[in-house]
């Protein structure tokens, strides 16, 4: 399957993508992963992107599109791919459409995971993450706490609340999403390839996607 996953921060895009990869071997692709991969690989595009990332600036669209073009043509994408958190803006969506036409790839659909704001706030403010970069296990103080408070079950490192998961930070992230990324819902609706799933359960989202693919 070749899908774009849309939804606000905390809507569950990453969880759904991981479950979908297990179904047919499609690869989960997020812009952050791609950029880090290109930087680690030391590609020309990766070196250019690294300069922006180190300065704390957004990586320009033309660089992201160049890295995306390389990534989508790697062998593991032949089985399918799940774009998680990309595109983020209408210009990126338009460039992605041109790119896919150029490399002869057809998207199956764009999936909008619609989750209420209060659910997202509750989900993210109660999330805790292992500080070990090689582990990064995720916990939830309500539904999935570590066995010992503040200590990772897997590696024993500290488990903390990320700076971008305080209520104030999440409210800012949601405002940015509503301004810049939410218009993509209309874009893909106009393209005739949008499905919206109003569900807090990952399984319900997966089942809706499967039903629309069949």
Biggest sheet descriptor = 5 strands, parallel
Low-confidence stretches: none
Give the strand order of the largest sheet, numbering strands 1, 2, ... along the chain. Answer: 2-3-1-4-8
Portion in helices:
40-55%
What's the total count of β strands?
A: 8
User: What series of H and E elements makes up the topology?
Assistant: EHEHHHEHEHEEEHHEH
Strand content: 5-15%
Envelope shape: globular
Distance between the termini: 11 Å
Describe this structure in words.
By secondary structure, this protein is an alpha/beta fold. It has a single domain, classed as Rossmann fold. The chain is 49% helix and 14% strand. The chain has a five-stranded parallel beta sheet, sandwiched between helices. Strands 6-5-7 form a three-stranded antiparallel beta sheet. It is globular. The N and C termini lie close together (11 Å). 23% of the residues are buried. The mean pLDDT is 91.
